[in-house]
Specification:
The structure holds two protein chains of two kinds. By secondary structure, chain A is mainly alpha-helical. Chain A has six helices and no strands. Chain A is elongated and about 100 Å long. Chain B is mostly helical. Helices cover 67% and strands 0% of the residues of chain B. Chain B starts with a helix and ends in a 7-residue tail after the last helix. Classes of the chains: A mainly alpha, B mainly alpha.
Chain lengths: 123, 178
């Protein structure tokens, strides 16, 4: 019986210790901590420089290899000779593809877990 | 779906995301400040200063968090270290020694009006027992986790919890189950 009492006492004490731990309201504490965080170190990214340089070199190479852009004139002439309906169909197809790619990029960016988002989408 | 601590820590690590860290602070501020209030015997200003220091240190050293323990356990350890350093500075920190044991209150002499006040009773316990009780019984850490937070042997944590409980029971005598 004494053991039973002891167990009851312990349960009661544990329950009170858990329940009576007061929740401390944030009251600006988080904001104060965040304000004191060190500023983010500026990221040195050469990605844009590299991409620009590669694009420039590729354009220059294409221009020189293709007889100083002769292929552009040829392509424009071919395009002008195409039937109007065909040009419209190609333009429409391009629009659909670009819209689909843009929409999916936006969808994946908006969802933290893209696979979960996909699963939800097809449920 | 709310992000887990692991997700938030990953965001801080990868993107240095202050918003993710703010979320971590929001999620754990109550427990950390509660622990420090108990350790500082309800010196609210000091407890909040130490809690701020705890989170700033956590941010600074977040790369050392390897996810082996819970994020909260890691935070408690930082909080306890902050408290210990501050107490050393103030020369108030005393280990388990005779002087402290003698200074423990006699349950018979405690103000009867306070006997139902568990939080107050908790503050009458010596530091090592109070800390063990708060970590294990209030914040739900296992004895093993508490031992890691306090950097003391597992057996010592168990003893401290047991002794602390016994004293609390005496201090709160008459308020238990009939």
């Amino acid at each position: 019986m004494d053991e039973m009492d002891e167990l009851l006492q312990e349960d009661w004490l544990d329950a009170r210790l858990r329940d009576e731990a007061p929740y401390i309201d944030d009251a600006g504490f988080t904001a104060a901590v965040v304000q004191k965080l060190p500023a983010r170190a500026p990221r040195r990214s050469f990605r844009s420089v590299i991409l620009f340089a590669i694009t420039f070199v590729a354009c220059l190479a294409a221009y020189l290899i293709s007889d100083r852009g002769r292929f552009l004139i040829v392509a424009a002439e071919r395009l002008a000779a195409m039937p109007f309906g065909y040009i419209c169909a190609v333009a429409l197809l391009c629009t659909v593809v670009i819209t689909a790619v843009g929409a999916s990029a936006a969808f994946f960016t908006a969802n933290d877990r893209p696979l979960d988002g996909l699963v939800r989408l097809f449920r | 779906m709310p992000l887990t601590d692991a997700d938030l820590v990953a965001r801080v690590l990868v993107n240095d995301d202050h918003h993710a860290f703010a979320e971590l602070v929001r999620n754990h501020q109550s427990a950390v400040r509660g622990l420090l209030r108990q350790l500082t015997r309800s010196d609210l200003a000091l407890a909040d200063d130490l809690a701020q220091e705890t989170f700033l240190r956590a941010y600074k050293h977040i790369r050392t968090f390897r996810g082996e323990a819970k994020f909260s356990t890691w935070l408690y350890r930082i909080a306890y270290n902050c408290f210990r350093e501050e107490a050393r500075k103030r020369k108030e920190f005393v280990g388990i020694d005779e002087a402290q044991l003698e200074a423990e209150p006699d349950p018979q002499t405690v103000d009867p009006a306070l006997k139902h006040d568990l939080m107050h009773a908790l503050q009458l316990l010596p530091l090592h027992e109070r800390t063990a009780i708060v970590l294990c019984c209030q914040n739900g850490l296992s004895h093993d986790e508490a031992a890691r937070v306090l950097e003391i042997p597992l057996g010592t944590v168990k003893t401290n919890v047991l002794r602390g409980r016994e004293k609390l029971k005496k201090l709160l005598a008459g308020w238990g189950p009939a």
